[in-house]
Amino acid sequence: MIIKSFPLLTIIFLFITSFTMPLFKKDVISKRLSFITLSISSVISLISVIYIKFNGEIYYRVGHWDAPWGIELHVGIIEGIIGLVFTSVATLAIWYSMFSLERSMKERIGFYYLLINILIGSLLGIVYTNDLFNAFVFIEVSTIAACGIVVIKNKKENIKAALKYLILSILGSGLVLMGIAFIYSITGNLNMTFIHNELIKIHGQYQSTVLITLVLFTIGLGVKSAMFPLHTWLPDAHSNSPASASAILSGLVLKAYVFLLIKILFRVFGLEIISQYPLLDLILILGSAGMIMGSVLAILQRNIKRVIAYSSVAQMGYIFYGIGLGNELGLAMAIYHIIGHALTKSTLFLSVGSIIEQTGNHKLTDLRGVGKEMPVTLSIFTIGAFSMVGIPILPGFISKWYFALASIEAGKLLYLGVILASSLLNALYYFPIVINSFFGEENLKGRVYMSKNKPLKELVPVLVLTLLVFLIGIFNKGIIDAIRLDLF
Amino acid sequence: MNSKILFEVSRLVIPFIQVFGAYVILHGHLSPGGGFAGGTIIGASLILYRVIYGKTEAEERLTYSKLLSLMCISLIAYGILKGYSFITGGSHLEVFNIPIGTPGKLLSGGLILPLNICIGIVVSVVIYFLFKLFYEGEI
Description:
By secondary structure, chain A is mainly alpha-helical. Chain A has helices at residues 6-18, 27-55, 77-104, 109-128, 132-151, 156-187, 192-202, 207-224, 234-240, 243-269, 271-274, 279-299, 304-325, 328-359, 370-373, 375-389, 395-409, 416-438, 441-444, 456-474, 476-485; strands spanning 58-62, 71-75. Chain A has a domain at 278-488. Chain A is globular. Chain B is elongated. Chain B has four helices and no strands. By secondary structure, chain B is mainly alpha-helical.
């Protein structure tokens, strides 16, 4: 069946079309090409999700060699949904950037879209692949593309942020490669299914090697997905890039690595093996620390984009918290939070990007009263902020609720306090922004209603994203059930 | 560099380097070497040309846009050829495949020869660009 090849087709399609962009002299063409190719790939992803829903998961061999020798893709319903979210968020972010990218950067626009296409293709590769070394190759491709996107503005702080990101990322991929080498030397396989079958038989003889491998994967992918003490590159890298790039970097790039970590922990090793080591407790503690400290650091920031970037650290903490709980519900909610946060964070970054673009201010103190000038954009921001804080119906609330249920189920009642504290801290830095921009006599003095509003057609992608946030929240039951059915 | 000896020697040597590079690329499936090795050899000849003949003359012949589109076209060709092989192999489609040819002859090895040519072009351009980036500060 040709539909089975759709996941692979998306990756190849994005890679090939990315290199057609430099052939055209005009930037407009690369913009449209990027938008069209990304929308085609989201349609293809949607078709494959529907196919998987009715026909079960896809194991697809790449090329002419069967699984243990050749590369294999595995696309279940979880991978399908995440791929769909990735392509559609990227499409909407690019749609947004079509109107506004020139205002934040003058040159290298063609290359920006080239890198975006490569980045999305490689992220899809990380999500779909069932082969560890293939995953490493895609990690490298995505790292280089992401560093290119950070540095694309060619300013001093961008170069600094990109170097920081590059060095830490290379450290992370080095650790992952070392982990793959260890695991290959004891199992003789690179395919995840085959490694799992081997490890079940032999992990008793190689306990310390398995522990070292687990730690290498956790730290290596933890650097890349901003696990709490290793997050230092994130605020610089995410706050200095153009709005659409921040949305993609923060919403999608981090998620792909954390999803790969989930796949490695629960598909390659399996819960039986990792529960012999205190690894999950470590992830739980680091995740909780991230939830608290990310929010505390966000409160201390003065720049609105840095606030949202630090909020990403906190939200990645939730995902690690869900993984660390080590039960089925926690893991399902970690994956649900990946989806919900990908949509919410890109909404936040795009709305903040348009606020900065229209007003020219990025300091929190200068943005007081902006709600009167740009009510639509600020309302979108408010919805995103509400989701982060955890107001019902929105995905943030759903994940917090089920995370709490999962920690009760795991018997870790103490950690309920962490969720509560983190939610309150979230409210502490999101609500002042919203309140100060909408209300207050002094704040609103001299502001003209709707004076700096963005044209509606430029806001359509952000509105669609907001709608998707609501939909993900409303249909949470179906999504969570689908995820739970397909868990490893 | 205005040395008569350098000009004459390089005029003699550069074609030989390039022929050798092309040989390494084209015989990648038969002997040691291949796209990457041959590409670096051709890239080295381009660097030699740039060092000896200077910036203006090198940029006249090896223009940025020309090299960039050459590289992009070979990357696209690589993607299409290999993607076709991936998709048809993975979906078990019985469609046209490049004939394998007689082993040991130049035209053999299926897709390896065209892919090696693509890699050779990309690598030679990238090597030249890397040199320019560090020598002049921009491409």
